[in-house]
Amino acid sequence: xxxxxxxxxxxxxxxxxxxxxxxxxxxxxxxxxxxxxxxxxxxxxxxxxxxxxxxxxxxxxxxxxxxxxxxxxxxxxxxxxxxxxxxxxxxxxxxxxxxxxxxxxxxxxxxxxxxxxxxxxxxxxxxxxxxxxxxxxxxxxxxxxxxxxxxxxxxxxxxxxxxxxxxxxxxxxxxxxxxxxxxxxxxxxxxxxxxxxxxxxxxxxxxxxxxxxxxxxxxxxxxxxxxxxxxxxxxxxxxxxxxxxxxxxxxxxxxxxxxxxxxxxxxxxxxxxxxxxxxxxxxxxxxxxxxxxxxxxxxxxxxxxxxxxxxxxxxxxxxxxxxxxxxxxxxxxxxxxxxxxxxxxxxxxxxxxxxxxxxxxxxxxxxxxxxxxxxxxxxxxxxxxxxxxxxxxxxxxxxxxxxxxxxxxxxxxxxxxxxxxxxxxxxxxx
Length: 430
Known about the structure:
The protein is an alpha/beta fold.
């Protein structure tokens, strides 16, 4: 150890007023890897000014700020008997660590990053994955996901990315869906590995990018995940994820699902879980139009009114668009029937309707969700929040333009229950 430089360090460390000088030196090393030129200390305290003026006694600081020439500081070191001391080394010793330039930090960081991806590649090379997939996946992670902050937990991060890559490859080459618990068991030996949390969210994010899946940003995180998984041949929550219907027949490749035809025969409404819908290839309705409503009580009211009077087909989305609802609507849009959708006239209701239209096209007609209905019927007394109103800005369908302007002005919601008579009349007259 160079005892001479240690003595010099101790001289300065004994007086905390010199900290500011070495902080400036540290910044110079970070920026240019050199300590040269001058440093500026803006508006120092009287105590710091007194210490620096005492150190550089031959300087006359006239301005409020202190401009210190690095060569002047070196001359002070010589006069103190430390002529052979390098300022970078002195600064490193002062802080007790090697100060790296930003360029050097970046070089070292890049080396760590490259080592990280080399290790990730090594993990995949022992698997049966095709080289082109490994290359594509690693580039995907590098460009769209990689978090430098995660390098501190490198082994854990490598394992997560490895398992996600294996899961994506499994679904990439698969022809049939798999339930997420069995995917977890197959890839990690833990059926709950991809269920939720950081690991599940990471798989969703990487699947979304890899498969170029677009999802509505207004959806909840759970709904986004369900759609990404569904499009990636991964089944999640296929039992409790259901849609309520009346008067719609379901067919698989083996023929009609008789359970639902019996419900229709007895004029009962029924829930259709996603588990049943995944094998449905065709649907049939009791008439040329299908009526979809958001509110469960409105659905029941329509069902009770028409069940003995008229053969109709109804769907209830229960205030949200579960994946089961989207799958059934998609099946209906492929048939030669007209779909009428009615929901609450509020930002969330219009947003759901807009999403259905975007996915199903001209087959879906807004049903009583218009300015005429909004103006005619009673509004909720509680104002719509600014956050909720902001959601209307993402709706570009011109059919809602006048309604959106009125809603932003009045800032009140109009619920389906208010215009239930209009909905009944519309069905009776079709």
